[in-house]
Amino acid sequence: MSLGGHPNNVVSVRYSSSLVFTVSTSYIKVWDIRDSAKCIRTLTSSGLVNTGDTCAASTNRTVTIPAGENQINQIFLNPSGTVLYAAAGNSVRVWDLRRFVCTGKLMGHLGPVMCLTVDQTGNGQDLVITGSKDHYIKLFDVTEGAVGSISPTHNFEPPHYDGIESLVVQGDCLFSGSRDNGIKKWDLTRKDLQQQVPNAHRDWVCALGVVPASPMLLSGCRGGVLKLWHTDTLSPLGELRGHESPINSISTNSSHLFTPYIWEAKCTESGTNQHDVTELEPR
Description:
Blueprint: E1 10-16, E2 19-24, E3 27-32, E4 38-44, E5 49-51, E6 72-77, E7 83-88, E8 91-96, E9 101-106, E10 113-120, E11 126-132, E12 137-142, E13 148-150, E14 154-155, E15 164-170, E16 173-178, E17 183-187, E18 192-197, E19 205-210, E20 216-221, E21 225-230, E22 236-241, E23 251-252, E24 256-258, E25 262-269, E26 275-282
């Protein structure tokens, strides 16, 4: 199965049940993959909805953004799969996937929103965390049915020294990676800074990931280096050169790490019934 016909590079992919969402330039394609790869909707950064596939494929590598639109940098689904958040320009657009309509925008950043992640409270309220080129991380509480412009409920201080490129949540902790080459660890309950590694990499920290059931944080940089950190202390556990190009995304399951390569994790069981990653091998 191939999901093609994009106007330029695909920069973000998400899936929920039978739907897959792909991002290229200012467009989000919505694919129904139950029978075949069929594009059923095309969403735009400005909030328009078109039935079917309405953005043409192109072999031109120059990124062209139509007038009135913005580059969509990342998308994220809420845990229930009913809402899609799309970062474009200085805001995040909120899409109700039950009706395929835009219901509002998360506002407040002074620069383009480069990354976001979404968690959910016990009462079903979405907690949207955004990172921007303005160096700041913001938290938005989004209640079900909220419409219009939504302001942040918290700004994380102190900010990074450069733009935020990556965010990941593990339990009550948030980790952020920045163009300042650093990684910060935040307490989501107290909403304060716990720890930081100012020069975690020699280049932008473009991707972060966590290993399920293990106190391991993974980071990837623009220089292609992959590093492992202990989530409790942010002490380094190892590194390797994974690629000759930037590592822009990291995904994990219980035994594998996915960058553009697939890595197999060699684990040992610790005394706390957790599994510690001791080695990564490409497959």
